[in-house]
């Protein structure tokens, strides 16, 4: 475990450094495409790779939004913007996220997810009941007058695996599952003033290679070749554009074929079912006594 332990610490340290540096980029009027590309450049400059495309989710969007190459979206002063950053070092992952707004009316909602994360981390010791961690998240978010997102969870992390066991629900549930020493988990409370649930949308900008099969489409084969280098980690549509001659139509046609052949898995953009505003906070934790937060 020692080598893995050190790599988790390294990935977490890089994630923390980039998270803090990225806060200087998130300002009203700035294009989210520019923010995402700047953060991803920071990652490569530190000899790491993105564990997933930078997620920049605004207002009622919870997750899985990464800007397209033609995206003109800019940050507005009234927005709650969620920046989710994943760092991979030789397969070991650091996953962290924060929310920011330039409108004070959003401060309490942002604080709700932060406080829930802080309280949950304290419980991440060996032999702790996972259900106690989830109950604390729900209790803390509700104490601020908001709802946790019931169908989004934190997750375990493993080698090149962003969603290993266990899932860490943001609401109370019954389970006898206990945390194990040296487990690595990402806790990510989502708080909302909406209904407390998210739904898939039709927009898909993130994909993951799940199997390799023959395909006649030349562009699809190029995508498979690129995705193989990611060892199963997610990739962005905009990353594929340069290898398909920056042709959006051909890129999406190839992705459609790969989806139909079940060669790739897609991640629809997730939105709050009633259009509620959402905040998010996330850290990566190694289960110890006391817990080790790698992304601080």
Question: What would you say this structure looks like, in words?
Answer:
- By secondary structure, the protein is an alpha+beta fold.
- It has 2 domains: 217 residues, Creatine Amidinohydrolase, CATH 3.90.230.10; 67 residues, Arc Repressor Mutant, subunit A (Orthogonal Bundle).
- 31% of the residues lie in helices and 28% in strands.
- The chain is built from 7 helices and 16 strands.
- Strand 7 and strand 8 form a beta hairpin.
- The longest helix has 21 residues.
Keywords:
five-stranded antiparallel beta sheet; Creatine Amidinohydrolase; single chain; 296 residues; four-stranded antiparallel beta sheet; 7 helices; 2 domains; globular; alpha+beta; Arc Repressor Mutant, subunit A
What's the quaternary structure here? single chain
Global structural class: alpha+beta
pLDDT averaged over residues: 97
Radius of gyration, taken over Cα atoms and rounded to an integer in Å: 19 Å
Strand content: 25-35%
- How is the largest sheet built, in terms of strand order? 8-7-9-15-16
As a percent range, the share of helical residues equals 25-40%
CATH class designation of the largest domain: Alpha Beta
The 3D shape can be described as globular
In the predicted model, the low-confidence regions spanning at least 5 consecutive residues are none
Q: Supply the number of structural domains.
A: 2
Count of alpha/pi helices:
7
